[in-house]
Amino acid sequence: MPYSCTVCDKRFTKKRHMTEHRKTAHAGEKLHSCTQCEKRFSSNGALSNHRNVHTSKYKCIECDMCCHSVKHLARHRRSHSGEKPFECAVCSKRFTAAGNLARHSRIHRGEKLYKCYLCDRAFSESGHLTTHLMIHSGDKPHKCHVCDKAYYRSRDLTAHVRVHTGDKPYKCSLCDSSFSLSNSLLQHKRYVHSNKTADSNRRPYPCPYCGMTFKKAFFLNEHTRIHTGVKPYSCSHCSECFTRRDKLKTHLLRSHNEGTWLTCHVCDRAFYRSVDLTTHMRIHTGDKPYKCSLCDRSFSQSSSLQSHKRCVHSNKRPYCCLYCGMKFKRAVFLNEHTRIHTGAKPHLCSHCSERFTRRDQLKTHLLKSHNEGTWWTCHICLMKFARNAHLQQHLRRHDVKPYVCSECPKCFSSASTMKAHQLLHLGYKQFCCGLCDKYFRSKCNIVRHFRRCSDKPGFNDV
Questions:
Q1: Residue 176's closest CA among 306, 61, 287?
Q2: 260-313: pLDDT as tens digits
């Protein structure tokens, strides 16, 4: 018997019988190991391709990333150019690789060929099933050598290691931003540098309940749960359920000590996501990479820049109060305002029975009453603040007042106080009481009035 299996020494008379034996008896086993990084592969051909990564045979000239084949390099280069030559015939979504299009097409056909034999879950890709099976076994083979955090997939570990190294190999060709993940670069180009101006093109996913539109289907699905009340993420230790995966992860860390916190080396503040730690570090470094093209303001987060453009440089107020008709530029402002009418106090202190209408009120309470958190202190007068934004606004009172009224020479330390002042010149009263139709110039005046007006006979049920 001239053909013997190198794994179990079983012998065969024909080579094809040995090949069939290896495919059935040793399927999934990774027998071929790389001598440089100890990564293992199921075939010698896959190992040979992997060795090209170490020899830098196929190296990207833009970010120095090493690929294992010409095809892989060509696909990677499209992450820099933004080219997506493969288009879905059903929804017109485009992809950088034909394989990605083929996997996407299964969504429209509803195909989930790979079924888990331990539960009822089914998947459209074999790799997703392999990762899912690790959840049942609890096996996380890819461990970080710095913080011992473990992952199911090697690519998740590679992305995580960049948190420690600070490596951001994916650079935007249109600005100075750089990213640790290629997907983050593609999203950045789509949302920040997109040439599409029509709102329907930029936000193609509308909510069937309230009409709000979203850039991605994922965000729409998360938003829809506000209307349906669905909480698909349940805790394995208690009966708590959550609408989002990140809220479940935070709950596991805080309540059951499951997971790993990422700690700021400056102030010891802990975060569960690397992106939150990166954003937080900009407070200490003062880095503000996102610059407004319409004024000289700059921001530490892309979302803050987009919010600034919408709130400062646009007059659109799409969010309307159902009680008094007042309009707002952001949904969060509407939600906070609505609590004036409803009296809702959703923010509960974990140490006592106190409840608050706003998160910053809870944060101030935790600092003052329970010594939980970190104060932001003014270096000039030593006045303390619960939020860094309030400290920055306070600091302007000591030195500069950059906001000048267009009608008179009066200067202000914040844009909001300047706008409130300009209403005096215009004689405009934007705040209307929904009970008696009386108008007011400032928010504080209508809040005071509303409390008195709602106490009058006949308005107790409002």
A1: 287
A2: 778 888 888 888 777 788 888 888 888 888 888 878 888 888 878 877 877 777
Q: Helix, strand, or coil here: 377?
A: strand
Q: Choose among 256, 36, 37: nearest CA to 142.
A: 37
pLDDT at 181: 81
Q: Is residue 151 helix, strand or coil?
A: strand
DSSP sequence for 448-462: HHHHHHHTSTT-TT-
Sign of the C-alpha dihedral computed for residues 353, 356, 362 and 365 taken in this order: negative
Task: Estimate the crossing angle of helix 274-285 against helix 154-165, to 10 degrees.
Answer: 10
Distance CA 173, CA 264 (A): 30
For 184, list phi and psi in degrees, rounded to 5. Answer: -65, -35
Spans of the chain, pLDDT less than 50: 196-200, 460-462
Maximum Cα–Cα distance across the chain: 102
DSSP state of 48: H
How far is Cα 384 from Cα 375, in angstroms, rounded to an integer?
Answer: 6
d(CA 14, CA 6): 15
What's the rounded Cα separation, in Å, for the pair 428 and 446?
14
Cα R_g (the chain), whole angstroms: 28
Q: Convert 265-283 into a string of H (helix), E (strand) and C (coil).
A: CCCCCEECCHHHHHHHHHH
Rounded-to-integer distance, Cα 425 and Cα 421, Å: 7
Those residues with Cβ within 8 angstroms of residue 309's Cβ, 6 or more apart along the chain or in another chain: 292, 294
CA 462/CA 459 separation, integer angstroms: 5
DSSP-assigned letters across all residues of 286-305: ----EE-SSSS-EESSHHHH
pLDDT at 97: 82
In this structure, the chain runs to a length of 462
Helix pair angle (182-192, 70-81), 10° resolution: 30
Residues 6+ apart with CB under 8 A from 35: none
Q: Which two tokens stand for residue 183?
A: 């997907």
Rounded CA gap, 415 and 404, in Å? 9
- Whether the Cβ atoms of residue 3 and residue 11 lie closer than 8 Å to each other: yes
| Dist. CA 267–CA 281, nearest whole Å | 10
Name beta bridge partners: 115.
Answer: 122
Contact status, residue 454 vs residue 345, Cβ threshold 8 Å:
no
Rounded (5°) CA angle 149-152-154: 85
pLDDT tens by residue, 59-76 = 888 777 888 888 888 888
Task: Give the pLDDT confidence score for residue 199 in this predicted structure.
Answer: 45
Name the DSSP letter for residue 119. Answer: S
